[in-house]
Each structure stands twice: as C-alpha cells, then as structure tokens.
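Q: My labmate handed me this sequence with no annotations at all. I'd like to see what the chain might look like in three dimensions before we decide whether it's worth expressing. Could you predict it?
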Amino acid sequence: MFKLFRFLKPYWWQVIILVLATALQVYTTLRLPALMAEIINNGIVPGDTNYIWMTGLRMIGLAVLSAAGSLISAYFAAWVGTNYARDIREAIFTKIITFNLADLKNFSTASLLTRTTNDVNQVQMVTLMMLNIMLRAPLFLIISVIMAVQTAPDMSWIIVLGAAAIIGSAVLIMALVMPKFKIFQDLIDKVTLVTRENLTGLRVVRAFDNEKVEKNKFAKHNDRLTKVLIFIDKILELQNPLINIIFNGTTLLCSWVGISLLSKDFAYLGNMTAFAQYVAHVMMAFLMMSIMFVMLPRANVSARRINEVLETVNKINWLDKTNGVPEKVASVEFKNVDFCYPEAHEKVLDNVSFKAVAGETTAFIGSTGSGKSTLINLVPRFYEATSGEVLINGLLVSEYEKNDLITRIGFVPQRGMLFAGTVKSNIKFGAPTASDEQVHKAARIAQAENFIEKLPKKYNAHIAQGGTNVSGGQKQRLSIARAICKNPDIFVFDDAFSALDMKTDAKLREALKEITGAAVVLIVAQRVSTIKDADQIVVLDKGRVVGKGKHLELLNSCRVYQEIVRSQLSDQEYTAELKLAGKVLARKEAHAE
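A: Here is what I predict for the chain of 593 residues:
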C-alpha cells in the first residue's frame, strides 16, 4: 500500500492544505468542550449571563471555523483521492500495453481488468479514508486524552478501559476477515473471467446448446464469492453493535463516576461535562481508526495485486536507440533459431533458418502445431528467440529501438482485431497521418472498397468494439487494409486470408503486388492455393524446416508438403500437379546436363 503513495507526490500542496484544514477542525472542535465547562462553572453556577453570552459567541465562531475546516479537508481529500486513483489506473494501463505476449501469460485478461478497476477502487476508497480519518483520528485522540486528563484526572482510567475494549474488538475482527480478503479478490477474478469468456464466446455456447453448463459454472464461482462476502459482511457488521456497547457503556460510566464526584464538589459539574465530551471524541477516534485497520488489509491485498503488475519486469528489453544502421533493402533472416515457451520443456521451433528478401513472397505452411504462428511472432519481437538470430534488414531485432522496428512491419494477426470507432479510424490505426487517398487505396487493394461503399456512412461508418458488426471476411480485409495503409518494409500475414473466398483471396494477392515490389511479404497459410505462387515456401513439421523451395519443387522433394497438397486436392488434381512437377524437374535436370 505504501509503495503506491508515490502517486501522491504531484499533489503535495493539496495534501498540505488538507493537513492544515484538518488541524483547524480538530483544534476548534476540541476547544468547544472546554468552553462549555467554562460556561457551566463561570456562567451558569454563579449566574453570570454576560459571561454566558460572550463565551457562547466564541463557541459559535469556533463551530463555524470547524465546519469550514471540515469542508475544506473533505474537498481536498476527495480531489486528491480521485486523481490519485486516476494516475494509478493510467500507470497500470501504460504498463500493460508495454507487455509482450510472454509477459501477458503471467496474468489473465480478467485479472488485469479487475486490478485496473476493482482493486484501484479499493485502494482509492481506503486512501480517501486515510486522508480524512488517519490524520484527524490521531489528532483527536492525542489532544482529547491530554485535555480530558487535565480536565478530570480522577476519571482518566475510563479512557484506558474504553480504548482497550475498542482495540480488542478491532483486533478480533481483523483476525477473522484478513484471510478472506485475498480469497475474495481471487474469486472476483474468476467471476470476471467466466463472464468475459462467455460474452466473447456466446455464439459458440449457443451453437453447442451449452447455456446450462456455462450457467452452472458461473453459479459455482458466484456462490463461492457470495459465501465469502457474506462471511466478511457478517463479521464487519459485528463492529457496529460492539462499538455502540462500548461507546454507550463508557458514557454511562462517565455519568455514574461524575455524579458520585459531584456529591463531594458541585463545581465539578463543568469538568464532568467536558470530560464526557472528550471521552466521546476519544471513542470516536478509536472507532475511526478501528474501521481503518479493518479496511486496510483489504486495500493492502489490492495494492499488492496492483504492484505485481507495475513491478513486472518485461521479459523483452528494448534499446532506447537503434544500435547500428539497418540495410536500406528490406529482408528477414532467421539463423539457427530455436524457441521454447517459458516453463515448457519441448522446443516449438528447432534450428529454423531461412532468408526472405524484398520483392519476394515467402510462405510458411505445415500442420497444426508445427510452429508457423510462433515463427511469425518472432519477427515483430512479440517473443524473444531462445537461441539463434532473427535479423530485420540485416540487423538483429534485439538491436532495434521498439518504434524503429515496429514501423517497418505491417502485421495482420490470425484473428482480425478491430477497435470501436469508424472504418477510417481502423484503417488509419497504424498510420494516423495517412490521407483519405491512402486510406481508399489501402481499402481497394485489400478488396474492402466494395463493401465499404455500401455502408450507410461509408468510411465514416461505425465499427463496434471487436468488429462485432461486420463479418469475419470483412474484418480480415479491414485488418489487411490497416497494414497496407502503414506502407511498411515487411508485410506479415498470419493466416490472414482464411476467412476470404478463393476468388477474393486471389484478387487480393494479385493487388498486393502493386505495393510489395520493394517489400518483404511473409504469409502463413493453411490453403495451398494461397501460397502456391510464392517465391519461397518454407514447410514446417514439429518446429523444424523439412522443406524449402517453390510449389512444384516441393512436390518433388518434400513428403510433408506432398501430404498437405494431397489432403486439399482431388486425386485427379493431385496427379496433374505431380505430372507438372515432374516435367519441371526433368527440364531442370536436362538444363543442368
């Protein structure tokens, strides 16, 4: 919790005003019982009406100052607390967007959402209470005790007894609820996770008629959360009756002891009245502090979860400045690259080597789990190669400043991701300064122009979060247009044509040639028809390169590629392809002789 107090530094002068206002409120409030004692002893008992009026006016003035101090401190406490929470949320978000894919695996998406919202709210609430209570309560406590002892030393033992009772009840409540707070936050994460999973996968749930199963899964976590929350609330609700018993018992004790002393000296009446008010302030101070000590553990759990995010050391470190001068001609080269996911025992990529040069298309194909997408993710350095070298334009990716590397790459992920906004804002996402002409050109090349022109507002048409109001094929084409608009040195298509029909796929690849003459094109695909015209096809099997060459060459030399092609073509088509491949091979051999 205290680690997060660094976010209070920008608001130091507001905190100083808050402290001064609180001190004013405490001083003026605690002067009132003393003045009341003076009115009783020096005004009421001797019958001095003038003294009563003069002292009463002073009390009214002090009450006004106390109210002003309270309002000022409450205003600045709320202002500082709200801005403090805003800064923490911003810091968490800023940290999260610097995470690489490897870093994100340490936290679930649901957990990061909970930490950014619920946990920050918990910290904000307790910080607000601390600014209001933790400063005021100790001042009230210390000054009230001093003034109570000075006013009626014979009754001071009552304060000790009441304070011991309140502290004992607070310790008991804390011991019961503290272990439950961590469980509560973990269960909040699980409920958020199940909710998010079902909202994003609603169509699949309905398609398989699994609403009842998912409802039961949610109910299980929700019931556990409810039980923990009921237990916490039951224990916390014990606090009010306990405090009331202690508070009323202390007041009754003050009255009983005070009345017994009045029988000896009636002039003790003012002192007894003032002492009772000071005891009330002492009890209230202990009450406020006990509430804080109960709430603090819960906020501390939230603060630890926030600090886990903020203190996460990124697994991939970027240089502040690119170390070296990249070659002007675009290229991507892998040299003996191995990759293994953290805490995994088997290699996903094993000794992968290839070179893709400008003006050529390099495609990657293989069975599911062969490492195609993992290989592609090493290009923009979403992951760090376990060993070997990944070079972009002749320079190691680890030698690049982050922005310098990313601006060279136009990446289209396997699942097209669109953001809430418009068609235009999504296409310009990687190139904010792009002109309307560039946006229209990118859409035309990506074969998105036809459906965009049919939308009510065309390029200003609304896109829902995640692109839920467009089809899968439209989403992919807009994602491709976004990469094209960026005009990068390297185009990376991670199975980005899977939602397109064969005709649109062919048109798009033909149109791409218009802008990729000086760029490297990397394509991951499952369909042979998408990559058969590639200048170089890299065949992967269990993370290893088992074939490298053009379509017809691989049909003659690579068994894995033959199996992939055969699975996608009819027997007649496959036989025709083999014959054509045989003729090409015979022609090459004859030319070699």
